[in-house]
């Protein structure tokens, strides 16, 4: 792996970890990160999944429920 690629991966992991810790990785965020770092969205998704696992977070947050207790989509 080239030095530039290792540095890019290190920075990407750092950003993803911070966004996950703060709960700020919103819908469409992976696409924006992929564009910014010049990698594929699938690669960013892989990094996000690995970091979620490392942080012990759920894969997908629990859906929001409305007042009746039914899932709101």
Provide tags for this entry.
73 residues, mainly alpha, 3 helices, 60% helix
Q: What is the total number of structural domains?
A: 1
Order of helices and strands: HHH
SS-based class: mainly alpha
Number of helices: 3
Helix content: 55-70%
Residue share in β-strands: under 5%
Tally of extended strands?
0
- Shape descriptor reads elongated
> Tell me about the biggest sheet?
none
Please give the alpha-carbon distance between the first and last residues.
42 Å
Poorly predicted ranges: none
Rg is 15 Å
The overall pLDDT, averaged over residues, is: 82
How is this fold's topology laid out?
Layout: H1 3-22, H2 29-37, H3 41-55
Helix pairs in contact: 1-3, 2-3
How would you characterize this protein structure?
- The protein has 73 residues and is an all-alpha fold.
- It has one domain.
- Helices cover 60% and strands 0% of the residues.
- The chain is elongated and about 55 Å long.
- The mean pLDDT is 82.
């Amino acid at each position: 792996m080239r030095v530039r690629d290792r540095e890019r991966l290190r920075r990407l992991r750092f950003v993803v970890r911070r966004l996950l810790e703060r709960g700020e990785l919103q819908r469409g965020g992976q696409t924006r990160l992929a564009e910014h770092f010049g990698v594929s969205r699938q690669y960013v998704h892989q990094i996000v999944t690995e970091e979620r696992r490392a942080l012990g977070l759920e894969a997908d947050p629990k859906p929001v429920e409305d007042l009746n207790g039914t899932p709101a989509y």
